[in-house]
Specification:
By secondary structure, the chain is mainly alpha-helical. It is about 75% helix and about 5% strand. It has a domain of about 230 residues.
Length: about 350
């Protein structure tokens, strides 16, 4: 009969385990710090609005905030994927215009809505694929590739029509006109449901799939990701397709929101999306970011516009406030990156 003797744990083992857990918690806290800062700014803005204007925090205002910015939420989700990999997509505003005017033109020629809507979304996917091919196959910088795609999409929108085309198809307008009452003055529309569903799916993909982990790995260090055998080229291509698809969906939502398609739609919309993503805590150099933060960034952006309207000053003050917030969050990002390097 043999007696097994189990060596007692050394004195330092629990300390190492405790340190490892504490270190992981600190790393996660630092990563979520920009998102928490955005959430804090959003809460502070609501409180300040209630104090200054009274009856500011109402179900109607929050529902309207989501309704008016549903398209921007979808755009920000796609932009988050791209920026996490260390890229950029300047074409999304032009894609919104192209998909919207294309859909309006096809509806005017008699195409059914159940065909037009997929065509609108796929038009964005194709342009995203073109950007991905330029970046991965021809080794063109994402900034230049997406800039070229921006001119391409805007030119195609002009080719389709120079005039604003009204949309009267009830299937398309149903997205915006339908109000789903939640009680207590709360309501949402199918466009809001679609936007929030996009956020939920993107969150799951980024944090619970191998594809999402590869996205973060590429943004953190692309060379290391290649050495680990990760499918860098395929994932980068897919990320650009995701961004283009989100832009196509946003074009569909925006066309439903405005009830028309217009080739001049979306001028500067890509900058709005980038601003919302950065305010939401996604690091421009890649490797860190959350779609939840991008959602909060869009909410901050929309609430700034509403607050400017309440105050009664010129709308260009919105750009000044957004610019100030961008500077603040860029400084915060530099702080976070330096802390990570020191650790």
């Amino acid at each position: 009969m043999t007696t097994s003797i189990t060596a007692p744990p050394t004195e330092g083992t629990p300390r190492i385990t405790t340190y490892s857990r504490r270190h992981r918690w600190q790393v996660r806290l630092v990563a979520w710090l920009p998102v928490l800062a955005t959430a804090g700014i959003l809460v502070a803005m609501f409180v300040a609005g209630e104090i200054l204007f009274g009856n500011f925090i109402t179900p109607r205002l929050i529902s309207s905030l989501l309704l008016d910015n549903a398209y921007l939420i979808v755009l920000a989700v796609g932009m988050t994927f791209v920026i996490i990999t260390g890229g950029i997509d300047l074409s999304v505003g032009a894609v919104v215009a192209f998909s919207g005017i294309l859909g309006a033109q096809l509806l005017h020629t008699g195409w059914p809505a159940y065909v037009v809507i997929p065509v609108m979304v796929l038009s964005g996917s194709v342009i995203g694929l073109v950007i991905g091919i330029m970046v991965q196959v021809f080794d063109i910088q994402p900034f230049i590739a997406s800039l070229a795609a921006m001119f391409l999409a805007r030119g195609l929108a002009y080719v389709v029509s120079l005039q604003s085309l009204p949309i009267t198809d009830p299937t398309v307008l149903w997205l915006q006109s339908t109000r789903i009452k939640l009680g207590g003055g709360w309501y949402i529309t199918p466009t809001v449901v679609l936007a929030l569903l996009t956020v939920a799916v993107a969150f799951w993909v980024l944090h619970y799939t191998r594809f999402g982990r590869t996205v973060y790995a590429i943004g953190g260090n692309e060379q290391s990701a290649r050495l680990m055998g990760l499918p860098v080229r395929r994932v980068r291509l897919a990320v650009n397709v995701i961004s283009g698809t989100c832009a196509g969906v946003a074009g569909w939502i925006f066309a439903s929101y405005t009830g028309s398609g217009y080739s001049l739609t979306g001028l500067g919309m890509e900058l709005d999306a980038i601003a919302a993503v950065v305010i939401g805590g996604t690091v421009l150099t890649g490797g860190s970011g959350y779609v939840i933060g991008s959602l909060l960034g869009v909410m901050v952006y929309g609430l700034i516009e509403i607050s400017i309207t309440y105050i009664g000053v010129d709308s260009w003050w919105t750009k000044i406030v957004i610019g100030s917030l961008l500077l603040l969050f860029v400084v915060l990002q530099r702080f976070i990156v330096s802390r990570r390097r020191s650790r």
